[in-house]
């Protein structure tokens, strides 16, 4: 069984915000609600990297653990969804989430935030699949159409991968190998730096000028 | 770390430049001119490190990932609060504190307070007034004082009940009444809580101003405490208008906890000032700790003010208490009033006529 | 009079309490950690329980055909693998 996951390849993300736009368009989320966002580190200087982030559909989801009305649930595929009919808009999931995924449509004076909204991995909500209700509350249910999240599927550089974790890992591993940079993410030299002795330079060090 | 490394490198460069390893020479050859490097590393040391790292070990973005975990705000077009923070770790800490510490410990404390009162009631029963009622009434709380007290009392009860539902309801009530009904109840409770809260905050301030004069500590309180307030024995313990226990409740319960709860509550209630998550998590923890302690103390206060002590509720209900009650519970206060107005109420069998109230109220 | 009112309140309270009996199984310590392929939630239609619908762009499976849905998803996912596309 698939275990759904997102992966953002920081080497490839070009901060086009296409995923953000695709998400907004696909689900017609209201103003002020951003289920996905792109964050750029070291913006505008050498060493710049961008990462697209949304709900990460945690295995041990803090939002689920702190929700006072227990409105969250997890599907077969490990997608974290919530029931907007139960949500009271208390904001606890927003306090707990490390990724800033939960969004609220209102500013919140007197704690009036409205119902929480977040990335559904394009899997809708508890309403009947393909129904008008589901569409209005949670957006499109692409998984039930045999598709994957819109953000990942339309990513122009394929930096954002989404789907079965095993397949995502395969695609990424294959990519890393083809890039020809052995020390990409894993291994001794990534963790501890290049060996001092000089005998073992990173597998395919770039040509030195 | 990087500073000392740079210093070391500079030193090594001066002294034994020619003997340096080829690798090190290669690195310095790729780096931007010295002046620019300094500028960059001062402006954004992480970017400089990442720029260097991707030359040395292409594909190794460790400096960037360190930055991801740094909880710093980075650039993003999303204009939400803290949208530029990729990972905020405090939420998990808050979750563990709330679910594994506050809920079990707080629940135990609150239940212990209830159990203690039940036990005390079973052991001592209500504290009765020993001498027969005189029928003469003394004004204990004027209308304003009662209005302030009841404002705080009613809002507190509403806030406590709705707060208990939000904190413990998932464990206690949800399994009994089910998701749909519980979510409806909690939604109602949350909104009531958020709108009643500010009223309570104002009430707490008024309560403080109203009762602070008679709650100033005095030496007599030490005697009251030494004798256990007469709660555990039948000895008569005199006290002023408010006894030692009431003063503790006033200073700790009303002032310290009331103000803490109000401040943290208002902070959570109005997330319109771009408060970040870390401050909200702390505000929530402070709010919960303070409220649970306050609720546990309030259990004792409510107990002794209602079923625990005969005649005590009359003072808050009607404003008047029987002279016998006053003499037994607050003898110094009784003496004081009697001294000030020796003719007061003599022979009267009911409350003082309304017209006579004004002069007397100034003495309460 | 008093008894009647008390009985009425008790009846309403009892009815309210009974509402819980109609609910799905739920426990206080509801597991928050994901167990591979195990549904841990509230009633919801699984993505394979309906036919693909009008926007499926060629994905085909019969309603309830879990394996069919999975293979459709797997096939679709290769769209993200540019090395497969290039070859």
Structural account:
- The complex is a heterotrimer of chains A (209), B (364) and C (87).
- With 209 residues, chain A is of the alpha+beta class.
- Chain A has a single domain (4-176), classed as Alpha-Beta Plaits, CATH 3.30.70.20.
- Chain A is built from seven helices and six strands, in the order βαββαββαααβαα.
- The longest helix of chain A is centred in the C-terminal third of the chain and has 15 residues, at 165-179.
- With 364 residues, chain B is mainly α.
- Chain B folds into two domains: 2-68, no CATH class; 92-361, Fumarate Reductase Cytochrome B subunit, CATH 1.20.950.
- Chain B is 68% helix and 2% strand.
- Chain B has 16 helices and three strands.
- Chain B has a two-stranded antiparallel ribbon.
- Chain B is elongated.
- With 87 residues, chain C is an all-alpha fold.
- Chain C has a domain at 45-87.
- Chain C has three helices and no strands.
- Chain C starts with a helix and ends with a helix.
- In chain C, 18% of the residues are buried.
- Chains A and B meet through strand 2, strand 3, helix 2 and helix 3 of A and helix 2, helix 4, helix 5, strand 1 and helix 6 of B.
In brief:
The complex is a heterotrimer of chains A (209), B (364) and C (87). Chain B has 364 residues and is mainly alpha-helical.
Rg of chain C, rounded, reads: 24 Å
Report the major sheet of chain C: none
Query: The CATH topology of the largest domain in chain B is what?
Result: Fumarate Reductase Cytochrome B subunit
Instruction: Tell me the name of the CATH class of the largest domain in chain B.
Output: Mainly Alpha
**Radius of gyration of chain B, taken over Cα atoms and rounded to an integer in Å:** 32 Å
> How many domains make up the 3D coordinates of chain B?
2
Oligomer: heterotrimer
Please tell me what the overall shape of chain C is.
elongated
Low-pLDDT residue intervals, each spanning 5 or more residues of chain C: 24-29
Q: Compute the separation of the termini of chain B in Å.
A: 69 Å
Greatest interface and its participating residue counts: A-B, 69 and 74 residues
Distance between the termini of chain C: 87 Å
- What low-confidence regions of chain B span 5 or more consecutive residues with pLDDT below 50? 8-30, 345-364
Average pLDDT reading of chain B:
84
């Amino acid at each position: 069984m698939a275990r759904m996951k997102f992966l953002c390849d920081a080497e490839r993300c070009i901060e086009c915000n296409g995923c953000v736009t695709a998400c907004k368009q696909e689900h017609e989320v209201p103003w002020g609600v951003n289920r996905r966002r792109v964050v750029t580190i070291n913006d505008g200087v050498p060493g710049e990297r961008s990462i697209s982030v949304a709900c990460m559909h945690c295995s041990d989801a803090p939002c689920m653990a702190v929700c006072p009305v227990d409105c969250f649930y997890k599907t077969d595929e490990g997608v974290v969804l919530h029931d907007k009919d139960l949500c009271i808009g208390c904001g606890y999931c927003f306090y707990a989430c490390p990724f800033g995924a939960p969004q609220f449509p209102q500013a919140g004076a007197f704690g009036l935030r409205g119902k929480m909204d977040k990335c559904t991995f394009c899997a809708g909500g508890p309403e009947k699949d393909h129904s008008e209700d589901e569409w209005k509350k949670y957006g499109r249910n692409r998984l039930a159409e045999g598709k994957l999240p819109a953000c990942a599927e339309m990513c122009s550089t394929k930096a954002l991968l989404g789907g079965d974790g095993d397949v995502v890992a395969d695609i990424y591993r294959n990519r890393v190998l083809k890039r020809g940079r052995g020390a990409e993410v894993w291994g001794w030299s990534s963790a501890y730096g290049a060996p001092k002795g000089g005998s073992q330079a990173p597998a395919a060090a770039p040509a030195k000028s | 770390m990087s500073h000392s490394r740079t210093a070391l490198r500079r030193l090594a460069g001066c002294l034994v430049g020619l003997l340096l390893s080829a690798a090190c020479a290669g690195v310095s050859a790729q780096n931007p001119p010295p002046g620019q490097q300094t500028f960059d590393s001062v402006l954004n040391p992480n970017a400089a490190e990442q720029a260097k790292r991707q030359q040395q070990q292409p594909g190794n973005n460790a400096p960037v990932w360190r930055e991801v975990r740094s909880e710093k705000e980075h650039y993003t077009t999303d204009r939400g609060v803290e949208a530029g923070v990729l990972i905020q770790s405090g939420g998990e800490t808050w979750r563990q504190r709330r679910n594994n510490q506050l809920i079990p410990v707080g629940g135990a404390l609150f239940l212990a307070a209830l159990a203690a009162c039940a036990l005390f009631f079973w052991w001592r029963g209500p504290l009765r007034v020993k001498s027969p009622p005189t029928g003469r009434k003394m004004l204990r709380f004027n209308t304003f004082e009662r209005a302030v007290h009841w404002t705080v009392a009613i809002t507190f009860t509403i806030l406590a009940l709705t707060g208990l539902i939000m904190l413990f309801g998932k464990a206690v009530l949800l399994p009994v009444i089910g998701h749909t009904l519980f979510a409806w109840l909690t939604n109602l409770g949350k909104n009531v809580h958020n709108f009643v809260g500010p009223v309570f905050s104002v009430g707490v301030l008024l309560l403080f101003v109203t009762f602070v004069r008679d709650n100033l500590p005095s030496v007599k309180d030490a005697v009251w405490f030494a004798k256990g307030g007469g709660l555990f024995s039948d000895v008569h313990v005199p006290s002023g208008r408010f006894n030692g226990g009431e003063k503790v409740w006033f200073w700790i319960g009303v002032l310290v906890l009331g103000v803490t709860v109000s401040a943290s509550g208002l902070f959570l209630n109005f997330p319109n000032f771009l408060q970040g998550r870390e401050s909200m998590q702390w505000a929530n923890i402070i709010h919960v700790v303070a409220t649970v302690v306050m609720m546990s103390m309030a259990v004792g206060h409510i107990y002794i003010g209602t079923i625990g002590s005969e005649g005590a509720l009359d003072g808050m209900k009607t404003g008047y208490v029987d002279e016998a009650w006053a003499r037994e519970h607050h003898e110094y206060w009784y003496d004081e009033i009697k001294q000030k107005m020796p003719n007061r109420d003599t022979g009267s069998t009911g409350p003082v006529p309304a017209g006579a109230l004004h002069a007397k109220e100034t003495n309460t | 009079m008093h008894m009647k009112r008390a009985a009425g309140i008790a009846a309403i309270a009892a009815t309210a309490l009974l509402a819980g009996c109609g609910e799905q199984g739920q426990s206080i310590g509801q597991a928050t950690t994901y167990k591979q392929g195990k549904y841990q939630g509230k009633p919801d239609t699984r993505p394979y329980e309906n036919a693909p619908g009008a926007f499926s762009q060629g994905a085909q499976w019969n309603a309830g055909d879990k394996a069919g849905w999975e293979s459709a998803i797997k096939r679709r996912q290769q769209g993200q693998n540019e090395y497969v596309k290039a070859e």
